[in-house]
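Sample A.
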Amino acid sequence: MKPAIGFPWSLVAATALVWLIAGCADERLAGGGTETGNAGAVSGRILDSDGHGLASALVDLEEVKTRSDGSEPGSRHATRTDGEGRYRFDSVQAGKYALYAPASDGLAQAAILTRLEKRDSLLSLPDAVSRRTVTLTGRVLPPVAGDSAGAQVCVPGMRACVSPGADGVWRIQQAPRGAYEILFLTGTSAHYLAVQVGAEADTAVYVRDVFLIDSAGPSRIPYRFYNLPQPLSFSMVPQTYPAGQEPAWYAGKSFADVKYFLLTDSGTGAVWNPDYLAGWKYARTLDGDSLYTGADLAQPLSGFPVPIRLTAANFDFSQARPDGGDLAFSDAAGHLLPFETERWDAAGKRAEIWVRVDTLAAANSERMLRMHWGNPAAPYRSDATQVFLAADGVLDAWHFNEEPSIAFVPDARGLFAGVVAGPPPEGGYPSLRTPEGVVGPALALGKSGDYVHVPWRAALDVSTAFTVSIWARLDQPDNGRKQLLASKWQTASREWHLDIYSDRTFEIEFGDAVGNIQGNWRSTAPVPSPGAWHQYAAVYDKGVVKLYLDGLEAAGALASGSIPAAVNRFNADVNIGSNSIDTTLNLQGNLDECRIYSTAKSGDWMNMDYRTQKTRP
């Protein structure tokens, strides 16, 4: 297949695959194209999953490059390892290469960016370890128009390209574990889907469906690129419709008037036009106080997630698909908005959906979005990873909407899931109950010392600013001890924890470099009725702390010590409902909607966060 666009495979290979080979950041590895006569040798070693040299393993070194029409393959070198797992390639021209080594127990693969200069006759690569592989399978939904029959699904650098079957299902064997991207190609477009395959994954992994809304032909569509994983330039793509070939909805518009989406972070390719949402039978405008009760803001809020609650009183569930898969949301201009369906219970006639708005208007009268439903052919678009974004300062969000039999606690971003820790309750797990919370189901922590443990990841660390918020309802607020809401706090790894005292004041506490308590900032007034739902939050900004209760700043004071100008970072885990050290301080009660941000959120944000989530009267 020859894609109609010039696709830069080299950039994809250098960024999309698992980096099992590290240490490629010196000036020899600056990239660049092939230079005649500028050749060298590349050597390294392949290890099996136990760390031993892998003998007689086939090793491919494939250059990843194409001409603008996608037709030119790169050069390929192949050899086998010796008894100690070593390999060597001679006469390798400068360029960008993917290393690939299939083995009986797995696959060793790396994206390497190499430029062999004349003074560098030999490039020695670090060991590559063979990883157990999986079979990837998924489904592509056919484009509205375009060359669907010629579609291909590829893992760049692996030389693995397959064509979907008549049912749209595709399979790629021996795919690596780790983080990389899958590429979906049609005759007129390219689409990405980021994939993470963990070490604990089974032998087969189902990849989410990819809906390819395509162009009407390579000469008829002006592409604009939105939210690409890396900057790309497609100079071969036409910028306007040829005269006389414009669709009806395009008449009278310029290129700048129409916003196209070739692909998004989730891998969904879409071409938007004003008629796109006409396929949905029903629509409703949600605006002002019908969206949520709220006064004007000092200034607009960017990237704000709005919860939408549906009940029998405000929504006819018989008009939508039984799984709620035909929902869509749009802004005032008709552009699709990302959303996550936290719960869809058609039988019980209740649902909760989170919709991310690019800009939440400052004036209440200017806030508006539209909900669409009633399209049997609509793709299922719920995707939490597109609602809670790192770009909006979200480190992570936990809804606590798990089924009672599951001790695994997923997170909205799909990166920092937790597990129920602590002593198993009588009779063993399940220990998670799901009473009705503030938004959908909630987490119930019992009296057996259980809590949610989220293992440390570097991306969860903060230094100079962060915000933490959580809803809580205490079973025994006056039990003579403090109770933990959320923390990054372990033995000799004390960073911060948020808790409420038996006198009903609450605080955030910080630890020092040797594991001692460094300082406490504590509210000066008691929380009214802590046995009812309240949103507790703390905002930290370069040593300045603000506490928030139900969206309003709570008066506070330094209770002891001092507040550090930067958070001490000790690779502490996140523990929700505990500090993991003293389980007698674990929370007894219910928790809902925990958020941790990498920024100090404004008072307007905190107030709107509470007002949109609170239970309506």
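Sample B, a different protein:
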Amino acid sequence: MSIQIWTYLLVFLTFALYIAIAIWSRAGSTKDFYVAGGGVPPLMNGMATAADWMSAASFISMAGLISFMGYDGAVYLMGWTGGYVLLALLLAPYLRKFGKFTVPDFIGDRYYSNVARTVAVICALIVSFTYVAGQMRGVGVVFSRFLEVPVESGVIIGMVIVFFYAVLGGMKGITYTQVAQYCVLIFAFMVPAIFISIQMTNNPIPQLGFGQTLSDGTYLLDKLNGLHQELGFAAYTDGKKSTLDIFAITCALMVGTAGLPHVIVRFFTVPKVRDARKSAGYALLFIAILYTTAPAVAAFARTNLINTVNNQAYASMPAWFSNWEQTGLLTFTDKNGDGLVQYYNDKNEQFNKEVAAVKGWKGNELTIDRDIMVLANPEIAKLPNWVIALVAAGGLAAALSTAAGLLLVISTSISHDLLKMQFRPNMTDKEELLSARIAAALAVCVAGYFGINPPDFVAAVVALAFGLAAASFFPAIILGIFDKRMNKEGAIAGMIVGISLMMFYMLKFKFGIFDGGKSAVAGLKSQLWFGISPEGFGMIAMLVNFTISIIVSRFTAAPPEDVQQLVEEIRIPRGSGEAVSH
């Protein structure tokens, strides 16, 4: 069968499975909708958490980043992996014991203030909508290539599916759907990785194949270093970013992970604090399977790409090349009219002077969107059609699972933290459930708009969401758990200053909002504060948040005695802390 038929078949089967699970596990109460009834077993919650966590950025974009950036791209791997360890050990058990539905709920009660709750809701909406933009773009990328429909139509199809199981099932439907989605995405990521590892290194374990020799006797990474330098790129195992920037991005991704509301809420779905710890351990194991494989996939894809396209006749390019050209995510411009594909780093002045000019090259002729590397990798390696289609189904599973979790955060923030807790405290359970579903439906529409009009490639958008979470939530949560003296004035001031600073820096240096439409790529890099890129500035904004929070709290009244006692009790490692809404 053709790739398209295989893709239609696998996508139809997986979507049918998700919808069937949503119907079977539909929410009948707000507790079902918000925390899946609080009775999800740790193993299943670990799988659901892994699917929630491993978004389109992890499945589609992370290996693509590492593939193009080499050593520098590994910062995403380190930051996201380390961040989950931080979340599992430092925050999850304590938040679970507190027993609230949402992060704004925790902040509102811990800081005894509806103003703090409202600020937290605004922060949650900003973080979630920034994050979901990347997921819907991932859906559009997959649909545009493998189902051969316009990106806009692909995003709309994805919206309909997410709308169905997120709005109908709430957290209960999302949880059990994410269990299925984890199985799909991990199988889809590992099968081609194993195939290609055997093909290139004769080792069926990609993590080991990463350090093996190729058929010509050279080590994979040595080969990549040579290919890169021949084309004017930096050696694959060398980095161009400064040590400070690498540290800042890693730190921002780590602490941003620990402040992501859609991941934190997963720990409220298990019966006990002990189960929260267990599910965190399972999730880390399930996540590690993909994350330890990603560097190998990146290296395999980069090697195959360069060997396949560079200095080859455009007229004889394989079918995958023209297929991706049709999506607009891969473009070729024959600048010197020789009919060959010249792919090299034309930004390297020394290389241009010594090599490109001598060969008659007039600039790089191939533009490749980083987000296609994982999806195109099986095609480049000439794997069976069913494997190529499987990767498409896996990419959709990764994007939709995280999108659903984010949409739930958005809907609960509006229905529970704003309407129920502030404006209409006497709402019935039925009314609150209806408002949550309406909010989720509206959020789906906004998410779809971002998918059709994406601000950047998937991982870049997602990295900015982590910076926003680091700048806003992390200090408020950490200080709320471990500092009895932390009060509402400090938390509110810290969150407002932190997220405002991060948004200003992001808009200025990523999108050029305050610089006449310029961007960091277009010449503003030299102006970056401390040389830190927007993806890493969340660390600076977080430190400012901590400083403002602590200073303001020390110059204002201490929290009430009952709140200080609550902080003491949260840190005692016993008690189940059943999730409650009030």
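Observation for Sample B: Residues 519-523, 575-582 have pLDDT under 50 and may be disordered.
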